[in-house]
Amino acid sequence: MSAELMIGTDLAAEMVAKAAERASALQEQYGVQPCLATVLVGDDPASATYVRMKQNRSKKAGIASRSVVLPDSTTTEELVAEITKLSQDPAVHGILLQHPVPPQIDERAAFEAIDPAKDVDGVTMRSFAAMAFGDPGFRSATPGGIMRLLAAYDVPLEGAHAVVIGRSPILGKPAGMLLLASNATVTYAHSRTRDLPELVRTADVVIAAVGKANFVRGDWLKPGAVVVDAGYNEGNVGDVHFAEASEVASLITPVPGGVGPMTIALLLEQTVDAAETAVHSLTGLA
């Protein structure tokens, strides 16, 4: 068996193009340009690269970018103050805190400083609750992008057994909630799960989000399983051993070119959503 690739690049480009059309309409009709503010703490090269990439994609989508760069010595209180300013600024529609942050910072406190109406990366507890309860709200960008990719490839989720390897509050946990909302049966696992390979072999859908290169091996998989690699490690390597898994899975995401483009596309789409909501609340439109 040789797996079909689930490519996110083309679908993400379609999403960004549609977001750009909506952004243009907002500017033409109301004189409002959607704005995404990015907050970067420290000088980690990889994080800086990710922020620049998101800013470049924003420009292509007609979304304004505002960049806040803080020193590595920034405290939790200082970061919260900066995010609070952005939350209170009516010209800013979406806020992205690039993570991870330096160890002295309480990341959860920083996330919770984001106005839920501007939480376009879906990192606040309010956004998680919305995903868990099926309420309107922003999806965590990577899990939301994964769900759009699965839908585009007509992956049947109802009644399927999905194993999510990873328990991050902004990736693994929300991915499980969104799969559950699609009527999948969800098992959360992680690097310390006992008999993990045996558990993964029961999965129809595997979401790998553990943050360890080549962690999931091909002989862990049920023949014909759908494999989504949400990991990104040094050297463009995912959390799944791609060569091995490709011989067993029916569908698999490559790294790069699979989940990554979808994450950014959903972030931009939700920024336009936030801008539209803000405009409509001011104009009294439904």
Helix content percent band: 40-55%
Which fold name corresponds to the CATH topology of the largest domain?
A: Rossmann fold
From the N-terminal CA to the C-terminal CA, the straight-line distance is: 50 Å
Tell me the name of the CATH homologous superfamily of the largest domain: NAD(P)-binding Rossmann-like Domain
Q: What is the number of independent domains?
A: 2
Instruction: Average the pLDDT over all residues and give the rounded result.
Output: 96
What's the CATH class label of the largest domain? Alpha Beta
CATH architecture of the largest domain: 3-Layer(aba) Sandwich
Main beta sheet: strand number and arrangement?
A: 6 strands, parallel
By DSSP, the count of extended strands is 9
**Helix/strand order:** EHEHEHEHHHEHEHEEHEH
What portion of the residues fall into strands of 2 or more residues?
A: 5-15%
What would the principal axes of the Cα set say about the shape?
globular
Structural class: alpha/beta
Q: What is the CA-based Rg, rounded?
A: 19 Å
DSSP summary: helix tally: 10
Low-confidence stretches: none
Arrangement of strands in the largest sheet: 1-9-8-7-5-6
Keywords: Amino-acid biosynthesis, Histidine biosynthesis, Hydrolase, Methionine biosynthesis, Multifunctional enzyme, NADP, One-carbon metabolism, Oxidoreductase, Purine biosynthesis
Binding site for NADP(+): 166-168
Subunit structure: Homodimer.
Protein name: Bifunctional protein FolD
